[in-house]
Amino acid sequence: MSERNEFSQQDIEILDEETLYKGFFELKRIRFKHKLFAGGTSGVVTRELLVKGAASAVVAYDPQADSVVLVEQVRIGAYDPQSSQSPWLLELIAGMVEKGEMPEEVALRESEEEAGVKIEHLRHAISFWDSPGGVLERIHIFAGKVDSTTAKGLHGLAEEHEDIRVRVVKRETAYQWVCEGKIDNGIAVTGLLWLELNYRKLQNDWR
C-alpha cells in the first residue's frame, strides 16, 4: 500500500453549495463528485456540512505536581433525558479560532479566560479533523506548562454565556477517568492520551 494518498484536493469537483442556516455555526448543503479508487468519477454526492472552522485546546500540565488543569461546563450536545450521565463535561481548556487569529494565540487567551492561568512553553501536540464526514472543524491541541496552584474558581465570559469551573486533577486520575469513560469528549480524550504518552518528556524538558 502506498504511504501517500493518490488523490488530492483537485480530485473533488464541487458542483454547487447552498447555505441552509447561519447562526452560531453555519450549515451548508454541498453537491460534489469525486475520483474513484477503481477509476472514473462518482455520481453526484449530496452532503450537509456543519461549518465550525478551527479550534484550539490546551493540555495544561504541571510537571511538578504531575497534574493537569481541566475545565467543567455544560454542553447541550450531551443533553439526553434518558441518560444517567451528566451533560456537564470535564474538558481541556479550549476555544474557537476566529478569523485573523493563530491557533497558538487562542490557546494562550483561552487559558486565561477559562481557567485564569498563564501558560509557559506552549508547544504543538497534535492536529486532527473532527468528524469530517459532516463537520468542517480542524482541532489543534497544544501542551503548555502551568502552575496548577494558580488554577481555581469560576471563569468564563458572561456575554458568551460561559459558566466554567476549574478542576485540577492528577495526571494518573485523569487518564483513569478516560479509561473509565468519565471523561468522554473527543478533544479531552485525545489530549489526555497524548499526555500519557508524552508526560515524561515534558517533565524532563520543563522541570
Describe this structure in words.
By secondary structure, this protein is of the alpha+beta class. It has a single domain (53-206), classed as Nucleoside Triphosphate Pyrophosphohydrolase. The chain has 3 helices and 10 strands, in the order ββββββαββββαα. Strands 1, 2, 3, 4, 5, 6, 7, 8, 9 and 10 form a 10-stranded mixed sheet that branches. The longest helix has 21 residues, at 186-206.
CATH class division: Alpha Beta
Principal-axes geometry comes out as globular
In whole angstroms, the N-to-C terminal distance is 43 Å
CATH architecture: Alpha-Beta Complex
What's this entry about, in short?
The protein has 207 residues and is α+β, with helices and mostly antiparallel strands.
Give a quick set of tags describing it.
ten-stranded mixed sheet; 207 residues; alpha+beta; Nucleoside Triphosphate Pyrophosphohydrolase
Layout: helices, strands, pairs:
Layout (H helix, E strand, L loop, with lengths): L11 E11 L3 E9 L10 E18 L4 E8 L13 E4 L1 E4 L6 H13 L4 E10 L5 E11 L8 E2 L8 E7 H10 L5 H21 L1
Parallel strand pairs: 3-8
Antiparallel strand pairs: 1-2, 2-3, 3-4, 3-6, 4-5, 4-10, 7-8, 9-10
Helix pairs in contact: 2-3
